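Q: Got a minute? One more chain.
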Amino acid sequence: MPKMKSHSGAKKRFKKTGSGKLQARHAFSSHILEKKSPKRKRSFALDVDISPADRSRVKSLLGGNGR
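A: Always. Here it is, folded:
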């Protein structure tokens, strides 16, 4: 059997931490930044944990044990 490939879009968007948590970039962080407060913009820089509802889907897209 050929190897299963991981989803190319998912590899660019999600990452797995050392402890096994899945993280992604914040939403609303790329444009229309003038009206957003500096505090809010700073918090966008931190990665956000994937919600439990989406975890299984992201794990399967990353393939294997999550890249």
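A: The mean pLDDT is 92.
Q: Perfect, thanks.
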